[in-house]
Amino acid sequence: MYNLSRSFILKEYKQLPIAVFLIFIVVILFNLILLRYPLTGVLGYEYSALNSLILSMASSLITIIWFKKFNRFSYSFLWMLLVLALTPLVMNIVFSLITEFCSFIDGVLFYITITLPAILVGFSLGIFSVYVAKKFSIILFITFILLIASIPVIEIYFNPQIYFYNPLIGNFPGSIYDEGMVVELKLVLYRLLNSIFFAAIVYMIFKDKKRSHIIRNSSLIILVTAAFFFASPYLGFSTNYSKLSNLLPQKYTTEKFIFHLPSDLSEMESKQILLHSEYYFRWLQNSIKETPSERIEIFLFESNDQKKEYFGSGTADVAKPWLYQVYLSRGSWQSTLKHELGHIFSAEFGSTIFKLSGGLNPFLIEGFATSQDPFRDELHIDYLSSLALFHYKELRINHLLKGFNFFASNSFLTYTYAGSFSKYLINNYSIDNYKKLYSNLDFIKSYGLSSDSLIAEYNFFLESISFEQNEHRFYYYFGRQSITQKTCPRYIGSLLRNGWEQVSKNKPEQAKNYFRSVLNMTPNYSAIVGLSEIFSSQDSVQQSINLISSTVTKFEKTPFYYLLRFRLADLYARHSNSDSASILYEQIKFEKPTIGLDIIALVRLKLLEKDLLRNYLNSNDSAKYAILSDLNRIDYFYPSIPAMITLSNSSGQDYSDFIKQFNKTIFITDFYSAYAVYNLSRYMLLKFDYRNSRKMAALAKRYNEDEHFNLLWQDNFEKADWFYYNADEFLQHFSSKLIE
């Protein structure tokens, strides 16, 4: 029988080495640091995962110290582990009572599922270390921790995935930009299997303490661990090459690429990604003066959800330079392919086994790829950086260059700055010097100048750029928070996902509850849009107007301020309040926060003028297309052409019928006409109409009053020109040389 007397327990505690109490102090200090930051300070995934890591190590060390001191299990020890397990939970609850909770139930579920099993993991590692070699138990514990920590490194390095499951932290879901996250059945199953496995180790050790059985028992543990590692793809805890190849069964192999495509991808779409990959490969080859040493594999997922499940990133497309692999979504590859291929080319001068920037520096990793694809939302990164520098002088590149500060700010801002600075270094000091910097992260060795000197030069370059000081455009692109700055992003993301799922299932009342739960916590654009859509679908347009009118000012100096006002203008137009609608459209036209909002506002005003807007807004895509087509029947209204292209595509309009509308002479007289033919050129390219695409690309270049758009026109012309002279020949050669 264990001695349960209070005096005996206190006596045991008094005999404990000071190291045990120091471990508790470290755990407390660690959690005080976590509580300082919005993302880790709430009771949720990050807090639970990080505490799982620290508690697994803490409980291991306490176990080793205890059994080396007393060589027995007691209730004193059990109480100590219980206090260790509950300390972070109690600290967070107390902190949340003072500040605010996100979701107590969700937070506790994360803690129970992820963090509490870590105590058992740590206890079993500690007792096994003492069991195998008591004298060297600390060294063994460190070895075991390093081995377990190496498993996800091995999986991410060799497998086509960026998520992982691991006993030390439960799981890492992949991209930090995918905000919605809940305790899923797969995670519960994984932690249950963890608990069974590590409990079995403890049971085996306490049942059979004979030293002669150490080798047998250790071998059994290693065998079970290895079996689980190889079985994990079939259990859904990892994704190997074979699994992904079966998921994406269409396989095409060219001289430079291997493509893995969804089964339902059309022949036209397949040819487009093949052609664009070939073009970008040759463009990057000329730009970087490098050729990848291995054939590049491109995995194209059917949807963001599919990519999230099997790869680990839903919203972000990703490359693995060390594997020469690129992972894209069907809906985004046209805007990300060149950037991701830039990452692959950087492998030829990257360092470490990952073939990335020295020190795995994210500023240079993303900066290089962005410099090779320098248009963001059709605006050049130099223009955007000069805009940011003018309005946001507090941010310093030196800060972003250090460690992982890159991820602590608005991602649009950091990617833009990194790309523009990298492009400046390449253009002014040669690609060879930049390759050295990318590899060694040493400015002096690479340029003979300090980073401060080069940054000062770069800032002077930005300040010399002539641009419109448009604060509205600045707020639109740089007015977002990073995920690390948001409060309760995981819980809110999950509520929003649930709300939109209910919308898609035509369950408006359930969706309302989710959206209202979000708005009770914080102003949120997606929740407001969701409620607005539901009200409008229920013929409560005035209720939708009231909702947006009462909340829009909360979003000033963010992109959502402009998007909500535009939505409000549309609602006014649908509610026959054309004067209020006109005022808002005119404001947005004047502010020009984005090219898209600017031209759509012009189209709305034109339709208002002709008393067509209400009918347009209440029509389906085919009817909207017909209205805009009629608007261009006599003379072109150039701002409407990009919308016509979108509607033609979404409504399934035959391309040959679409193109007949553009048989009148096109005059390039201003930005809007140039932008219209630029969009026509891009659409024609996707429809394999290379001759007309090249013709329109050349027409757009006639508007040359803005040097940043000149770069966009030129970039598009180079692509159209290459397709005109090479696409048919490439497809013919590809068809005859198809390997698989």
Q: In words, what does this structure look like?
A:
By secondary structure, this protein is mainly α. About 65% of the residues lie in helices and about 5% in strands. The protein is built from 34 helices and nine strands. β3 and β4 (about 255-260) form a beta hairpin. α4 (about 45-70) runs antiparallel to α7, α21 (about 490-505) runs antiparallel to α22 (about 510-520) and α21 (about 490-505) runs parallel beside α23 (about 525-535). It is globular, with a radius of gyration of 30 Å.
Q: Topology of this protein?
A:
Blueprint: H1 6-14, H2 18-34, H3 38-41, H4 45-69, H5 75-98, H6 104-132, H7 137-158, E1 164-166, E2 170-172, H8 185-207, H9 214-235, H10 241-247, E3 250-253, E4 257-261, H11 267-288, E5 296-301, H12 304-310, E6 318-320, E7 325-329, H13 333-345, H14 362-372, E8 375-376, E9 379-380, H15 381-391, H16 397-401, H17 411-440, H18 443-447, H19 451-464, H20 471-478, H21 489-504, H22 508-521, H23 525-537, H24 541-551, H25 559-574, H26 578-591, H27 595-609, H28 613-617, H29 621-631, H30 641-650, H31 655-659, H32 671-686, H33 690-700, H34 707-736
Parallel strand pairs: 4-5, 5-7
Antiparallel strand pairs: 1-2, 3-4, 6-7, 8-9
Helix pairs in contact: 2-4, 2-5, 4-5, 4-6, 4-7, 5-6, 6-7, 6-8, 11-13, 13-14, 14-17, 15-17, 15-20, 20-25, 21-22, 21-23, 22-23, 23-24, 24-25, 25-26, 26-27, 29-30, 32-33, 32-34, 33-34
